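Before surveying the methods themselves, we first show a specimen of the format, giving the amino acid sequence and backbone structure tokens:

:::
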Amino acid sequence: MRVFILILAFMLICFSHPATAAEKGIGYVKNVNEPASIERNKTSIPAKPGDKLFQNDVVVTGKGGSMGAILRDNSIIACGSNSRLVLSEFSFNPAENKLSSTFQMLRGTMTYLSGLIGIRDSKAVKFTTPTAVCGLRGTHLAISVEGD
């Protein structure tokens, strides 16, 4: 019986390794003015400071709402009222020179202050809107997209 328990404990330790890179998230919510939420896997979660953000999350703010976030490379994103921003792709591994971030601004307003990805390789940061694509050529950017 002891051997069985030891084997079971060993298997639990080996196969329940905490936090892969994806589980660490790509950033976190810094501040929120409601209404604001995070859409993840077709589920809407009311946003609150400290919430982790993951690749493919959608930041959604309602009328009068706003949300600020800090990404792992120390980029700062702030979405204004009635906004919808998709955190499409984010890769930050300087040791392997894997640096890229792509965002889709579907509606509303947002500002972006570049972190290490944009500082090291401005071409690795890209924003798309329903009608345009914007690359980062500095450290600060603001986008406004009219829409539903």
